[in-house]
Design a protein that fits this description.
By secondary structure, the protein is α+β, with helices and mostly antiparallel strands. The chain contains one helix and four strands. Helices cover 48% and strands 33% of the residues. It has a four-stranded antiparallel beta sheet. The protein is rod-shaped and about 105 Å long.
Amino acid sequence: MERNMMSATDHTAASATTDREGFALVTTVLIVLVLSIMAVGAAWIASSEKKTSFNEGVHVRSLFSADAGGEAAINFIRTSDTPPNITDFSDNKVHTVGTTTLQGSQNFDYSAHFSGRRGKPGWGVAYKDYDYRMDVEGSASREGISGVELLVSRLFKEGY
C-alpha cells in the first residue's frame, strides 16, 4: 500500500512541474508586452513635447516680431518734428510700413492712425498731446502671427 501512495505523490509532483513551465512563458510575454506599451507611450510623449516646444518657439518669435514693429511705430512718432499729416481720411491713417524683414522668416508691418489731440495741462494753449493708434502685426514662419495694438501720445507745439 505504501508503494501505491508514493506512486500517486510522484505523479502529482510531475504534473505540477509540467503546468509551471507554461506559466513562465505567459509571464514573460506579459512583461514584454507591458514594457513595449510603456516604450511606445514614452516615444509618443517625447514626440508630442517636441511639437509643442516648436510651436511655442514660433509663437514667441512672432510675438517678438510684433514687439519690434511696435518699437518701430513708436520711433516713427518719437522722431517726428511736427504732427504727421493724415494720408488716408477714411481711417485717419498717417503712416504705413509694409513688410519689414527682421531675421530669417520673422517680419512685421504696422500702420499709424491719428486718434485725436487734447490740451496738455500746465503747458499753455499752444501745446497739445497728439494721440495715435498703432496696429502692428508680427509673423514668424508661415504659422506664427501675433498682433499688437498700441496707443501712443506725443506732445507737439502747434503753429511751430
